[in-house]
Specification:
Layout: E1 7-11, H1 19-26, E2 32-35, E3 44-48, E4 51-55, E5 68-71, E6 76-77, H2 79-91, E7 100-103, E8 107-108, H3 111-121, H4 136-145, H5 151-154, H6 157-179, H7 186-200, E9 204-205, H8 207-216, E10 221-228, H9 249-253, E11 264-270, E12 273-275, H10 288-297, E13 309-311, H11 315-325, E14 329-333, E15 343-352, E16 355-357, H12 364-368, E17 370-378, H13 395-408, E18 411-416, E19 424-426, H14 428-435
Parallel strand pairs: 1-10, 1-11, 2-5, 2-10, 5-7, 6-8, 7-9, 11-14, 14-18
Antiparallel strand pairs: 3-4, 12-13, 15-16, 15-17, 18-19
The chain binds inosinic acid.
Inosinic acid binds near residues 137, 231, 242, 276 and 277.
């Protein structure tokens, strides 16, 4: 990646593609890892020497000594979630001070965001999204409404007090009128958040300046996406999406680093597909194969513990995702989870009203009329767990990956064959590209 030192890494479908582990593995090659969207709705699981770390807000890069973590302006920050994650990392002896930074322009999630979300999700007549109930959507609503609280404002105690008083008055009134919710107390909220602000202050800086300076100095930055491309507020399966820009474009607006400074885009896809929450899922499996994948892949939400819906690889969707993100490299995770599949159907196209098409519908009616067209590949039926060289994979597993690569239009750079850092193969061309 000469002159292409920085990279965006993101989930290619609906999140949970296993980015956490891949960001962790790749962070060795980068100086900084910056989160650009979402909040503590993300769940990034990393296993290091058998020890499991689940990070929801803090970029996975901080697990590597020497790699700095940045929470960009595009993130919505729950101060309490942040502090409890910092504590967990400090408790296991990770050096966090001086390694982790929060944008002064990131928006703050406050308790009334969660209150409104919980009430609204269950209100009659509302489309249930199946959110993570972390207050993410309402915090982004306030941001766009220009009534949000940013981290820089959190640190200003006079402003914080007035903001909480006014916001509580408004939100309590709305929540009570619409949903009969009990009001929140602004006084205790202010006191709690003013205390949190003091602990957060040392982490806060202008991270746009910091990141651009780092790039000027020849450092490499990895922009870590949260959720997945099809959960993006603009490009995803609206309204069953998250409230931020999960696609590669979000890396630019969510950190303040211009597009000309980002060298490549790496999409992470499982060898199959999963989704949590509601929303369309053309290749969802409704037979025993779903249970097999769920059990072998431990497909339960890292944040909410909900069982994930499982499906076969959807190539039209992956091609679309690669297009909107400009994905150059793909990382295929959880290859080993498919070791026991006898046959592996792969969706190669959609039939809508009898017509074969590659176009992803924009609306729910379109999704409902999709009949996926499958090509069935033979399963390899033996263990690929821990294999780290492509040639050592069984021939049928190699064939599966080659098919995926040819049909998706992006190059496979890495394959993950187990949850541990070590159970990862890096293909030679990608290894070469990473050396720059
Ligand atoms: P929200 O982000 O909590 O508003 O939830 C909106 C939708 O995005 C729901 O379907 C969630 O299940 C989904 N979602 C949010 N974060 C993640 C994630 O990290 N992985 C997978 N799905 C997610």
């Amino acid at each position: 990646m000469s002159q292409r030192k920085s990279a965006v890494i993101l989930g290619a479908q609906w999140g949970d593609e296993g980015k956490g582990k891949i960001v962790d593995v790749l962070s060795e090659k980068f100086d900084m890892v910056a989160r650009y969207a979402g909040g503590h709705n993300a769940g990034h699981t990393v296993i290091i020497e058998g020890k499991k770390f689940v990070l929801q807000l803090i970029p996975c890069g901080v697990l590597r000594p020497g790699c700095k973590g940045v929470i960009g302006n595009g993130v919505v920050l729950d101060p309490m979630a942040f502090l409890s994650e910092v504590k967990k990392l400090k408790d296991v002896g990770l050096p966090i001070d001086g390694q982790l930074f929060i944008s002064n322009r990131a928006q703050v999630i406050l308790p009334y965001h969660r209150m409104i979300e919980l009430a609204a999700e269950n209100a009659p007549g509302r489309t249930k999204i199946g959110t993570t109930s972390r207050g993410i959507g309402p915090a982004y609503e306030d941001k766009m409404h220009r009534s949000g609280l940013r981290v820089v404002d959190l640190l200003n105690s006079a402003l914080l007090r007035t903001h909480i008083q006014n916001a509580c008055f408004e939100k309590n009134t709305i929540a009570h009128a619409l949903f009969g919710t009990e009001p929140l107390d602004p006084k205790s909220m202010y006191e709690e958040y003013a205390r949190a602000a003091e602990q957060i202050a040392p982490f806060v800086t202008d991270t746009a300046v910091m990141l651009n300076k780092a790039i000027d100095d020849g450092q490499k930055v990895m922009f870590e996406g949260a959720q997945g491309a099809l959960l993006d507020i603009d490009h995803g399966t609206y309204p069953f999406v998250t409230s931020s820009s999960a696609t590669a474009g979000g890396a630019v607006t969510g950190t303040g680093v211009g597009p000309t400074r980002i060298g490549t885009v790496i999409g992470v896809t499982k060898a199959y597909v999963t989704r949590v929450g509601e929303g369309p899922f053309p290749t969802e499996i409704h037979d025993d194969s779903a249970d097999l994948l769920r059990a072998r892949g431990q497909e339960y939400g890292a944040v909410t513990g909900r069982p994930r819906r499982c499906g076969w690889l959807d190539l039209p969707l992956l091609r679309y995702s690669n297009m909107i993100n400009g994905t150059e490299w793909l990382v295929v995770t959880k290859m080993d989870v498919m070791d026991e599949c006898v046959d592996i159907p792969v969706c190669t196209g959609y039939k809508i009203n009898g017509q074969l098409t590659d176009v992803i519908p924009a609306d729910m009616r379109g999704y409902e009329s999709i009949v996926p067209v499958y090509t069935t590949l033979k399963g390899w039926n033996c263990s690929t767990e821990g294999i780290t060289e492509f040639e050592k994979l069984p021939q049928l597993a190699q064939d599966y990956l080659k098919f995926l690569e040819k049909e998706s239009g992006a190059k496979i750079g890495m394959v993950s064959t187990g949850p541990d850092r070590a159970q990862t193969m890096t293909l030679p061309a990608f290894a070469e590209a990473l050396k720059a």
